[in-house]
Amino acid sequence: MDRFLQYAKIKLNVDRRLILIYCLVYFVWGIAMNWFGTVMEIARFTYWWQVITTYILYMVPISLLLRNRPFHEQYAYGLIAMGFLEFGGYAMQTSYAYPNNLLDSFFGGRTFALGMALFFALYFPAGNWLVGKIYQGIFKKSPECH
User: Fold this and answer.
1) Which of 29, 36, 64, 135 has the fewest CB atoms within 10 Å around its CB?
2) Average pLDDT in the 86-113 region?
3) Which residues face 95 on adjacent strands?
4) Cα separation of 144 and 146, whole Å?
5) For 40-99, how does the pLDDT look when each residue is reduced to its tens digit (9 = 90+)?
């Protein structure tokens, strides 16, 4: 546990501007995905503010911990993180899956949460890449630890 805490302390010690970019990107991403899931009647959060707790308070720190890792590691660890999140969200009914939604009809109802976890695990490598590009574009330097 000590090794993990040391690792986390290093990975989370970043430029505050980088954290701000993560929060802005993930917030917009979360709002857009919740809107898309609602409009397409796939799934949605029960409460709008879950975008903040899920995308900013849960996914941003995990993204920072996984930053600069190979794609396959980010995806694998992200899959574990999203598996717990999806399971918890549907088990506690803080996420709502529309009955007979597009994914259910295509893959079957018993695979819905797994499909969501497999998809959303891509957020970690994709989000880290996107935020890194935005940060470099604005500040003309690599987002390294301080």
Assistant:
1) 36
2) 88
3) 45
4) 7
5) 999 999 999 999 999 999 999 999 999 999 999 999 999 999 999 999 998 999 999 999
Q: How large is the average pLDDT for residues 111-122?
A: 90
E strand or H helix that includes residue 45 = strand 43-45
Q: Cα angle vertex 69, ends 49, 56, to 5°?
A: 10
| Contact present, 89 and 136 (Cβ < 8 Å) | no
DSSP state of 57: I
CA distance 18 to 41: 34
Please tell me whether residue 117 adopts helix, strand or coil conformation: helix
The answer to whether the beta carbons of residues 117 and 59 sit under 8 Å apart is: no
- Cα separation, 67 vs 43, whole angstroms: 28
For the chain, the average pLDDT equals: 93
